[in-house]
Amino acid sequence: MARQKAPDKSISKSEAFGLLAEKLKTQAVSPNVLAYKPHAKQIQFHSSLAKIKLYIGGNRSGKTHGGVVEDIWRLKGEHPFRKVPPAPARGRIVCVDFNQGINGIIIPKLKQLIPPSLLIGGSWDKSYHTQEKVLTCSNGSTIELMTYEQKVDAFAGTSRHWVHYDEEPPKSIYNECQARLIDVDGDSFLTMTPLLGMTWIYDEIYLPGLEQRDPDIEVITVSMDENPYLPVGAKERFLKNLDPEERKAREKGIFVSMGGLIYKTFDPGTADGLGKHVIPYTPELLAEVRKYQIYTGMDHGYNAPTAWIWVGVAADGTIVVFEEHYQSEWVVSQHAQHVQKRESELKINVHLRVADPALAQRQGVTGTSIQTEYAINGISLSLGNNDVKTGIIKVQQYLGINPATGKPYLMITENCQNLIKEMKRYRWKTYTNKKTQDTNNPMEEAHKKDDHLCDALRYLVGFMPDLAPAPEQKLAETFEVSKPQRYDELLARMAASGAVESTTQWTENTGVATNWEWEG
To answer: Which numeric CATH code is attached to 32-252?
Structure first.
């Protein structure tokens, strides 16, 4: 049987010119990496020699675009701004999901930016394995595309020269990917908008990099305004209907508490100096605080930390949190021993201790309560009020300005770093997904994470109507006068004696004035 002749795949000159024109048009609209013109922050990102680069910013600020260009230069083994491992190199891009992240963002970016010379036969289809989601280049370099939807075990395997995280990764996946870089001392970079709020990225990468506490981390922040290629009108139309917190994240790339901060007026200061609610811890301050009425507040935990605060309250209403204890996986006897030892070192006498009311519950193992265990170890605890909203309102009020001093009622010394950290991030709880959030009123519950010292403070301030010591009062005094004596003469006599007429009682028939309040 005669073999069927293959169809003629040759094309005419006119068709060839048509295809060429189409490719030129595509290149003009969506130029590849050879025509890439980075803006200033992208140059900073590409030039960084840090092992971990956090390129964080607003939407459409050029983060992902710059990140994929960085991937392509590393695939080539040639980089215009720094030295990278030569080809063949092995990389990994990880993003939120396959549908939108890989298929909707990363693959279109790679197709647009990668030069045909880096593809096998100049063809994407010949280079990209759809099932394995691996791009193999003509020089032998490879890059695998993965998502945060996958199980952590999927991120094991052989070494990689670099990992690119597009948007914020879960910490477990990040840790597993970082382990792939150890053998070759590889690099990682994150391109993201901080839409999840103050998560582990904020604590472990953003702050150490921003404050230059870790030489291996560099933070590059970029706002929408720094992308010169964005139409101004389109940007404003997008931003104008966002709530203030989300706008900060989407426009400037600023970490915000997406549930809404609870203590919005709390001013801890910046790296350049202390704010109005945080004060220096000095021997002079401690000597002054020893004269105050001293309280402690406590929130108990085991896996989660047990949190103690020591608070001095002056007669003018000034409240100073001057000491904290924050420790997990200690038993009651260890905490009690530490508390007693620290109070002896500070030379302070505690007027009252207030704790989580749940401490009265008896434990199944010992048959006693945590409150009883502390008592056995020499520390007596009063149980606080667990009305969360009332406690929060009281703390918010104490953050206000005391007219007697011109300073906030509540101040925290700079050594209480854990309390300051919690106060900065204490936020309202949010719904589990954006759709539910958009169709409901904001939650009126505090987010139950990293709130142990905030709870200790809340139990304490909610225990009494006012923490300030009551002014000293003289006993009520009775003035007996003759019936004809004028009332205003009596008032003058009272005033001369130091009385104030808030609860005066005058009985005309007997000529007796009683129930006077006295100034100290």
So the answer is: 3.40.50.300
